[in-house]
Amino acid sequence: MYRVVVADDHPAARLGMKMVAEVWGCCAVVAEAADGRELIEAIEADAPDLVITDLSMGRTGSADGLALIKLLRRRYPRVKVVVLTISGSAVIVDALVGLGVSGVVSKRDDVDELLEALRNVERAGTHIGRSFQAENEVQELSLPEAELTKAEIDVLRQLANNLSVTAIAARSSRSVATISKQKTSAMKKLGLDDTRQLYAYLCALRGGAHAG
Questions:
Q1: Secondary element (H or E) of residue 84
Q2: pTM, whole model, 2 decimals?
Q3: Is residue 93 within 8 Å of residue 104, measured between CB atoms?
């Protein structure tokens, strides 16, 4: 049974987090927090296994945003962290994944997405919410005749959707080294010399992509 702390500056949002946690059924919510300072105090007092927190709680004089998550991961490495955010930035998601969070969920998603993230807490991978994909997601790429493997094509498709190598690894439960190797292999087969050429190439291909 996970001991959970929920954190958001809006009481209604905290209530929503608690309700989803109750549906999950594998935890007990032991404390609530309205900002970074209260969250740290709750962790110190209640020793949770899991924190569900908004990324930006907006209170001055308190750790917030990526700085707060970095602090949590450094000071409490055994505490799993699921982050909710209104931001749709792939850069933010990549940074959160790099800090070692257990899940990143968009506040624009319905509650089922948070529930799925919580269910994934017990697994080794990281849950990346479905909203963190390009608005006009490329489902297929119109690639030239090249001996690309299925895995290499999938990596290129996700790169075309503005996902980083780190985020792709988290989404696919593969290592960053594996994704990097597949990216490099695909570049060689396509005759691309560097990452700048790759992204220019993928940007050109987006015009020929179609939904699957």
A1: strand 80-85
A2: 0.69
A3: yes
On whether the CB atoms of residues 183 and 175 are closer than 8 A, the answer is no
Q: What is the pLDDT of residues 173-190, one digit of tens each?
A: 788 889 999 999 998 888
Radius of gyration of the chain (CA): 19
Amino acid present at 9: D
CB proximity list for 154: less than 8 A, separation 6 or greater: 172
- Is residue 107 packed enough to be buried (19+ CB in 10 Å), middle (13-18) or exposed (0-12)? middle
Partners of residue 7 on adjacent β-strands: 33, 53
For residue 23, the number of C-alpha atoms closer than 13 Å in the C-beta half-sphere is: 14
pLDDT tens profile 127-148: 888 777 544 454 455 555 568 8
Closest of 32, 171, 209, 26 to residue 93, by C-alpha = 171
